[in-house]
Amino acid sequence: xxxxxxARGVRRRQAQEALDFEREREQTLKEQIEIVIGEAEGxxxxxxxxxxxxxxxxxxxxxxxxxxxxxAGDEPGYIEWDDLLADEPAxxxxxxxxxxxxxxxxxxxxxxxxxxxxxxLGP
Length: 123
Description:
By secondary structure, the protein is mostly helical. 77% of the residues lie in helices and 0% in strands.
């Protein structure tokens, strides 16, 4: 029984599982970044496209992409999201993009480390 080969095999599996996880995490982070960019830039992109469309087509697209939300304006203590953000100077999309990009950088660095470890384990 070659204990070194067994230990190396276990470590290889563990490192490969961690690497696979980080690759999946990277894909998820990329998708989250796309969603945030879509939320930030979507209204501007929509407005430009709507200018070149018929009013009836615009209504159809708006209904699908911006469905009516929960109307709780009559509820006691209800505060509109836009009212909360009105006094907020920070660009929340920029903050979220910065956070996601930091996570993405960390994820890629971890992938690099696990790949180096797998290479260092040898065959």
